[in-house]
Write a structure and sequence with these properties.
- The chain has one domain: 1, 4-beta cellobiohydrolase (TIM Barrel), CATH 3.20.20.40.
- It has 9 helices and 9 strands.
- The strands form 2 sheets. Strands 3-4-5-6-7-8-9 form a 7-stranded parallel beta sheet, covered by helices on one side. It has a two-stranded antiparallel ribbon with strand order 1-2.
- The two termini are about 25 Å apart.
């Protein structure tokens, strides 16, 4: 599965969140359970910060024939808003995640110190992978406000596009695009006014070949709308669109898809992201992203962010994507890359959360985390 960025589970309730604890199979494999509300105040439940597989296949989405009106902002207005406030220079580590749950629950495990210092202490993205419109605003607000209160930048991943992952391991999402548009409206309402980075729908553009031409055009219209809605709700939000990775589409091909989805417009986009949940070397992604941006066009200032969470040894030669052996952590997350056009190295996929081969998909697997961190 060369394409898939990640494997997710639709989880999240108003009163609970996902955590990883032992289930009787030993400390080496963890399972999700619902626990009490997080401790940061106010802190409603948040979906798992990265993914696992849904158990059953979702029906194909029904695309609404009518689309909601989108907020409109000129490129010059968007650029002006972007420059009105200082940008925090540090990323936000959200204080609830599966790896942190495991660290707290296993103080005597000999792997704990390595996993804690090299993985749990690093800032990582928070995923919103479940379609739960009634609680999404409060859950996004909990993360965004936590970052703003500390002067740090959170990374948020909306992941609810209909027909997600073409019905593969990460299938699910909103029932149709009209519902997705409404979900994005509610997501945007929780962003507040602080600096945030939004990784908009991994795989939604690069992995759109399973859709008909009409369905693809409708999806891309919804993604362009989503970018405008997010940036209109919070002018300090930096929204990045799906560029796949360097081992997938040619840069010009990917840029053509991105352009259709609004990624070349400053009203919708701050650039592209690549390598989410994949393993390609940072140098390869830097060269690829620059080529994509060159082919994309758009206003000056569009940049790229790269997922470096598991790419320390590069991608396997055989193209394996499911917890391949011999991988290791990549560069630590930072907003200061020293590379022109590369805005950040991020940990979008949380290291140690399985793709489904070394543990249950999406759950934290200590042996896998330890192998990556050693």
């Amino acid at each position: 599965m060369v394409a898939a960025a990640s494997v997710v589970v639709a989880v999240g309730t108003v009163t609970g969140m996902m955590s990883a604890v032992g289930d009787g199979r030993g400390a080496d494999e963890a399972r999700p359970v619902v626990t009490s509300s997080p401790r940061l105040e106010p802190l409603p439940a948040v979906p798992p910060p990265s993914p696992s597989a849904s158990a059953t296949k979702s029906p194909s989405p029904t695309v609404s024939p009518t689309k909601k009106a989108s907020p409109k902002a000129s490129a010059s207005q968007a650029e002006k808003k972007r420059q009105t406030a200082p940008v925090p220079t540090r990323l936000y580590r959200y204080p609830e995640s599966r790896v942190l749950d495991w660290v707290r629950a296993n103080p005597d495990d000999p792997r704990r110190a390595v996993i804690e210092s090299r993985i749990a202490d690093q800032p990582a993205a928070v995923w919103f992978a479940d379609y739960s419109p009634e609680s999404i605003t409060s859950r996004v607000r909990a993360v965004a406000s936590g970052g703003a209160a500390r002067g740090r930048t959170p990374v948020l991943v909306p992941y609810a596009i209909p027909d997600r992952d073409c019905g593969g391991h990460s299938e699910g999402g909103a029932p149709d695009l009209a519902a997705y548009d409404a979900w994005i409206d509610r997501f945007a309402a929780g962003l507040g006014g602080g600096e945030v980075i939004v990784i908009l729908e991994p795989d939604a553009i690069a992995q759109s070949e399973c859709l008909s031409a009409g369905q693809r055009a409708d999806r891309f219209a919804s993604l362009a709308r989503a970018g405008r809605v997010l940036k209109d709700a919070n002018p300090r939000a930096r929204v990045y669109f799906d560029a796949g990775h360097s081992g997938w589409h040619a840069p010009a091909e990917q840029a053509a898809l991105l352009r259709q989805a609004g990624a070349a417009s400053a009203a919708s986009s701050d650039g592209v992201f690549s390598n989410v949940s994949n393993f390609h070397a940072t140098a390869d992604e830097v060269a690829y992203d620059r080529a994509v941006l060159d082919a994309l066009g758009g206003p000056p200032g569009l940049g790229a962010v790269i997922d470096t969470s598991r790419n320390g040894n590069g991608a396997p030669a055989d193209g394996a994507w499911c917890d391949p052996a011999g991988r290791k952590l990549g560069r630590t997350p930072t907003l200061s890359t020293g590379e022109a056009g590369i805005d950040a190295y991020l940990w979008v996929k949380l290291p140690g959360e399985s793709d489904g081969c070394k543990g249950t998909p999406g759950t934290f697997t200590p042996s896998y985390a330890y192998d990556l961190a050693r």
